[in-house]
Specification:
single chain; Rossmann fold; Tumour Suppressor Smad4; 7-stranded antiparallel sheet; 6-stranded antiparallel sheet
Length: 311
């Protein structure tokens, strides 16, 4: 019986605050699998090759959104053409955007206890399917640049990185957009780029932000990607084309997963997107910040479709 492979990120905020959690997960999984901790990102490659050899049934990730992305990237690389295991997101981070979007609730220990008990007893799991986003060989769920990148950069600049931090930054963004402050001017600086979605050019070349996601949320129960589950092997693409103050007026509709005027936001469902800018493309993928390896261009496409354990 192959069992469960558990990856722990000891550097996530919750795991730093509660270092005994990782040891507890090891005790809980017991003979039903293997629990390992990473000291650096490169450790993931070796761990995933081990899990591949063990032919695990479930990969459980104890970390935040960035940890999920790094683990999934290493898994896809290691497994190659081999079918991927089911995924359990243990909510070991602060934001847990992907887990929240999948309606996964509980603590890492509680989720692991449920996982082990059902696995041992042969009880069926409740699961959902979610596509991944592939960006430059990295795999995750939420991509953004422009003010999306700036917003998350402001959130992650705070050492505490709590939900309260996100709320404060969100309030600052909203207020700055209404008053036209210097913060808003920096955050909403324009992106000049040509964009193709499924090889069709978008009718705009100037954006305040571009974002794409295969999950509905972006944090705080904010659901701008309400079309992300419209069809398999695709993602919801958003392009903000209006001024900061007009975008601020659209936030209530985005929060409640409603369509926004096309004069403010262009949105569509696609499987591939190409961005060619007049400057290096900086972006965030699941809370991790990057600059395009190819300079002024970037390709997004759907990656493997994952079966994620909810409960």
């Amino acid at each position: 019986m192959p069992g469960i492979g558990v990856v722990n990120n000891p550097h996530s905020r919750k795991n730093k605050k509660n270092p005994d959690w990782m040891q507890s997960l090891g005790h809980i999984v017991g003979s039903q699998g293997t629990s390992v901790a990473t000291q650096k990102i490169q450790d993931l490659d070796e761990m995933m090759l081990l899990f591949k050899r063990q032919d695990i049934d479930i990969l459980a990730i104890n970390g935040g959104d960035g940890s999920n992305s790094h683990a999934l990237t290493a898994m896809v690389k290691a497994y190659g053409e081999k079918p991927l295991p089911r995924i359990a997101l243990l909510r070991g981070g602060t934001m847990n955007i992907a887990a929240n979007s999948c309606k996964i609730k509980g603590t890492p220990a509680g989720l692991m206890m449920n996982l082990v008990q059902k696995f041992r007893n042969g009880t069926p799991f409740e699961t959902v399917w979610r596509d991944t986003l592939e960006v430059e060989g990295r795999y995750g769920f939420v991509f953004g640049n422009g003010f999306i990148h700036g917003f998350l950069e402001a959130v992650y600049a705070d050492d505490k990185k709590t939900v309260w931090t996100t709320t404060k930054v969100f309030g600052r963004v909203f207020g700055s957009a209404l008053t036209g402050s210097q913060f808003a001017k920096q955050l909403f600086s324009r992106i000049h780029a040509r964009v193709w979605a499924d090889e069709k050019p978008l009718p705009y070349t100037t954006f305040a932000a571009l974002a794409a996601s295969t999950v509905e949320q972006i944090g705080m129960n904010f659901k701008p990607f309400f079309r992300s589950q419209e069809r398999p092997h695709s993602f919801h693409l958003l392009g903000a084309i209006c001024s900061p103050i007009r975008f601020a007026s659209a936030l209530p509709r985005l929060y409640t997963a409603r369509k926004v005027s096309e004069k403010k936001l262009i949105e569509l469902v696609a499987s591939k997107v190409r961005i060619v800018s007049d400057q290096p493309v900086v972006y965030t993928l699941d809370g991790e910040n990057f600059t395009s390896k190819t300079g002024n261009s970037l390709n997004l496409q759907t990656g493997p479709r994952l079966e994620i354990v909810v409960r």
